[in-house]
Every structure is written in C-alpha cells, then in structure tokens.
Amino acid sequence: MSDNQFGDALLSRTDEHPMSTTAERSVVVQAPGGASPGKEWVIVTRGLKREYDMGGEVVRALQGVDLAIRRNEYVAIMGPSGSGKSTLMNLIGCLDTPTAGEYWLNGLLASTMSDDELARVRNKEIGFVFQTFNLLPRATALHNVELPLVYAGVSSDERKRRAKHALEQVQLDNRMDHRPNELSGGQRQRVAIARALVNNPSILLADEPTGNLDSKTSEEIMRVFETLATTGQTVIMVTHEPDIAAHARRIIVLRDGLVASDERRSTFKQSMGVS
Length: 275
Ligand SMILES: Nc1ncnc2c1ncn2[C@@H]1O[C@H](COP(=O)(O)OP(=O)(O)OP(=O)(O)O)[C@@H](O)[C@H]1O
Ligand SMILES: [Mg+2]
Known about the structure:
This protein is α/β, with parallel strands linked by helices. The protein has a single domain (3-272), classed as 3-Layer(aba) Sandwich (Rossmann fold). Helices cover 37% and strands 25% of the residues. It contains ten helices and ten strands. The chain has helices at residues 8-16, 23-29, 85-92, 115-125, 141-151, 156-169, 185-197, 215-230, 242-245, 265-272; strands at 41-54, 57-70, 74-78, 100-105, 108-109, 126-130, 203-207, 234-238, 250-255, 258-264. The strands form two sheets. The protein has a six-stranded mixed sheet, sandwiched between helices. A four-stranded antiparallel sheet has the order 2-1-4-5, with helices on both faces. A hairpin with a 2-residue loop joins strand 1 and strand 2. The radius of gyration is 19 Å and the shape is globular. The two termini are 19 Å apart. Residues 52, 54, 59, 61, 79, 81-87 line the site of adenosine-5'-triphosphate.
C-alpha cells in the first residue's frame, strides 16, 4: 500500500487531535517519569525510543512513542512500511528492550528488566499471532495449542483441558485432530490464535494476522478477534489494510517512528471512507 492511502486528511488532523489532548496522555503519559500507572492501564509507554546501530549509521525506528492502552481495548496499529510497527510490537511483547523511554506492562516497568525477567513476563502476559501461523506441520491442532504449556511444565491432563478450551474459544473444537495441512488458512490461523490464548495472556499481539489470507477468511479472523475483545481480551493487531483496522475500536497510525494519529473507530472510518 502506498503512503498516500493513509490520507493527507488524516495527517493534517494530527495537528488538530494530537494525542496530547486525549485523556490517555494527560492522565497517564504525562505523569512524572517513573510513576507507575494505575491498574486499568495494561500498556503505557513514555517517550519510547528504539535505535539500531548499523555500523556507524543509526536507524531511529521509534523516536519517542507515547501510548496508554486500557485493559480490554481492541487496538489496530497502522502506518507505512518502515514506520516502526513491528519494532513497537516487539517492545510491547517483551521480545526487545528500548534504547530510551519507559514501558509499563500491567504496572511493571518492563523497560529496565533483565532478559530473564522479560522472558518470564512474556510467557505469562503475552500471546503472539503471526502472519505465517508458525504451526508445527506434523502436530495436530490440539498438540500445537498444547505446546506453550509443555514448555511451562503443565501436566498432560491439564494441558489437554486448557488446549481444548482455547480451541473452543476460536470455534475449532471440531478440528482438534487435524494437522495444519488438513485445515484451511483461516482455520490454521485460528489454531495459532488458540495457541496464543492457551496461557491466558493479558495481551494478544497480532502482527499482520490476515496478511496471508483472502478477504473472506480475513473477516472470519476478525470475527474471532471481535469475540475475544468483547469477552475481555486485550487485542493489539498490526495491519496495512484500512478495512481490517476498522474492525478495531481504536486505530493508531505510526509515521516515522512516532504516533501520527490515535482515533476511535467511528472517526477513523469517516476519515478513511470505510463503510
Ligand atoms: N533489527 C534491525 N536492525 C536494523 N534496523 C532495523 C531492524 N529492525 C527494523 N529496522 C529498521 O527500523 C525501521 C522500522 O522497522 P519496522 O520493522 O518496525 O517497520 P514496520 O512498520 O513493521 O514495517 P512493515 O510494514 O514493512 O512491516 C525500518 O527502517 C527498518 O529498516
Ligand atoms: Mg512489520
């Protein structure tokens, strides 16, 4: 997609509705550095920066991202290629640490954690869904979903019980014994979503979850996210497609490593002309 698809309208509105006017910013982001946000905030970033040193040349992937996301929100992150979406998701997902700034996850300051602490927090709090599903080809749907629990040392009976429950959440309990090549693309992605949910994470992170799916199947995945969001799961997804983003209740657009706009679905739909 071209940069222009984000629309000059949207960009010029950035000046009228910068995040600094929102409750999120005044209440949470502009609180004193080091102050722990309240319990309802699952994610707070203050001046988050990530720079990559490429042998002398510094790539500034994130240049000071301020964000505050409440528990149970359903958020889409958009923005042109290279604007920092995946970099931000990696930081939110505790796969990476920032060069500068604060990242608070559920009231814990993740930005200063050691790798071991990050791994522990990640396993407990974060479920990942990827564009390419990343399923084990020889394992059944049930076994794929059980895997994170194997690593967590959960007993076999308990694993099966929880994996079945996660597959029910994505309406796939009738395909538990199928291997990935015996499933449709949408069903594979639903297995991947069940796997991400099986640890009962506080955040579901999805980077281009519909990138490999046709539009009908993408809608199927959006219905799953919608159901999860209405039953209390915090969902954050990256997408290039305005139609997909319009399923979320809040749409954040990144540009050059900064938040360019942060809108509710209704305003976003108006500005993008999405029905
Ligand atoms: N590991 C890395 N080392 C060096 N530079 C990186 C690294 N990862 C990302 N970058 C750079 O940081 C910037 C942001 O990259 P990022 O992957 O976050 O973009 P994106 O918004 O996810 O793009 P896309 O839509 O293409 O997936 C880009 O300029 C990219 O080249
Ligand atoms: Mg990316």
